[in-house]
Amino acid sequence: MFTEDAIRAMAKNAERPVIFPLSNPTSKCEATPEDLLKWTDGKALIGTGSPFEPVHFKGGSFVSIRRTIRMCFRGWRWGLWLRGRGG
User: Fold this and answer.
1) d(CA 25, CA 81)
2) pTM (predicted TM-score)
3) What's phi and psi for 19, nearest 5 deg?
4) Distance from C-alpha of 62 to C-alpha of 70, rounded to nearest angstrom
5) Among positive and negative, which fits the CA dihedral 45, 67, 62, 9?
6) Where are the beta strands (DSSP E) in the chain?
7) Which of 60, 65, 36 lies closest to 50, judged by CA?
8) What does the CA dihedral 22, 25, 26, 31 come to, rounded to 10 degrees?
């Protein structure tokens, strides 16, 4: 899942890694926005499936965007349709 090592590798290889820990409720979330910001030195773009309070990190305030799995599946389905693999 979203281990510290995996997230740090993403941050090393991507200018702004996009990370979506979508599990709900908050207690089951794969990683917290606070951890993700720490592990990426504030570079991550984060969308969560659960609500989180803003994170204060390095003098700034970061807000994770709440996304639902339904929104993500629409995008995946659309992408597959565009590639001609499903609909």
Assistant:
1) 30
2) 0.70
3) -130, 125
4) 24
5) negative
6) 18-19, 45-48, 55-57, 60-62, 65-66
7) 65
8) -40
pLDDT digits (tens, 9 = 90+) for 33-64: 899 999 999 998 888 878 888 888 888 888 77
Long-range contact list for 75-82, CB < 8 A, 24+ apart?
Answer: none
Q: Mind listing the pLDDT tens digit for each residue in 60-76?
A: 888 777 766 555 566 66
Instruction: Report the candidate in 74, 51, 77, 72 with the shortest Cα–Cα distance to residue 63.
Output: 51
Going along the chain from its start, the domains and CATH numbers come out as 4-83 (3.40.50.720)
